[in-house]
From TrEMBL, chains A, B, C, D:
Origin: domain of life: Archaea
Organism: Halobiforma nitratireducens JCM 10879
Stretches for region Disordered: 1-27
Full protein name: Sensory rhodopsin transducer
UniProt xrefs under SUPFAM superfamilies: Hypothetical protein TM1070
Length: 122, 122, 122, 122
């Protein structure tokens, strides 16, 4: 299995507020990363906004032969991503990985889900 | 990060009516664009219908290193896109971009979401 | 804009029963096709099942510079697709097209949506 | 129609609990496979976790010219996939296939759906 070093997700949005039991049902926006290599991957995420400079990189690691599901609402270094504002992200990894974008929206009584494989860059 | 100059979204639909607080919860169909280049991208969107000539281009800009989330229900020049009618769109940009398609359907009490990376043309 | 001649959708399912006003809210599974060429495209759809021979081709046309959103629950020639049974589809076109798969599930009080760009074959 | 021999799905999650009539409405996570070849495909699925060794391969077959929709919550050999824990999967086939990932989440009164074509590896 060979992935890519660079991925993009143009859609991003952390809803304001949520319903349901915490934390499983809290509204969240996730980046799911799969690293099938036999070495740890170092992943750098840059977040883009509509009207200000990009923020990042947010540095993450994914161990060898592991998956990691990162929640954008838990990003805090260099800074938290604001709720209620659109954003986009670029994911760069030193090893080939595969990325998928998923959102659980629980602002109302019932949840909604979306998911798509991210865009694999060169 | 390198994107593509041309993208397509065969599915498009602006539901008639909506529920929930405006404008966050209004039903909408969005085109999310990411421009990671260090120059402003000029984006032209052509909208296709089942039974009449295409309309456009709708001209948009996305500043350098920014994301823009365009709502099809807010397109008005050269003309508004009618509610309750299927459409498709082709997005052409002078710089490489990445496009994602998302719909929030709030016609009933609870929302539904869909999203997919658009189709990257040559 | 250049599409592909062949597309595949491994997931297909027409739910049994539905809620809400007809026909907008009836559960349905759709194939959205975009033909940006200046000639009519002839599209042949073959439907695959878990435990019997494929059925088709279902023949459709998409006029020049038009989009068509076909509902699998309205396919009837050579035969209707049964409700409540998984299926998959292959779409072949004489001209390059772009295909997207969308489902509206309205079996319960609130709708659910899914969508993905189909898989572009060689 | 030509597919690929290797596919990846970084997102996986079997929700704990469910609502609605069994088994149609039970929460599930599915892998939809299409084999358009005129021979049976042998498919091996490896499941990755956040913090332990991958499990597999889970061996499946898809007959010639058939589709198969496998539910991850029914995988049991070499072992069941735990509920409430993220996972990812890699699908390898001796024949070219096409893979799609779908989840029906019925933990609350109303369902949510997500779907995406899986990532086609080399």
């Amino acid at each position: 299995m060979t992935g890519k070093h660079t991925w993009a997700i143009p859609e991003g949005y952390i809803p304001e507020g949520s319903t349901g039991p915490e934390p499983e049902m809290r509204s969240h926006e996730s980046l799911c990363v799969l690293n099938t290599a036999d070495e740890e991957a170092t992943v750098e995420i840059t977040v883009y906004f509509p009207d200000r400079e990009p923020v990042g990189p947010y540095e993450k690691t994914v161990p060898a032969e592991r998956t990691a599901h990162f929640r954008f609402d838990e990003f805090d270094d260099p800074e938290a991503i604001p709720e209620g504002e659109p954003f986009a992200s670029v994911i760069e990894s030193d090893l080939p990985i595969v990325c998928q974008h998923t959102r659980l929206d629980s602002r109302q009584a019932e949840n909604a889900l979306l998911s798509t494989i991210a865009y694999p860059g060169e």
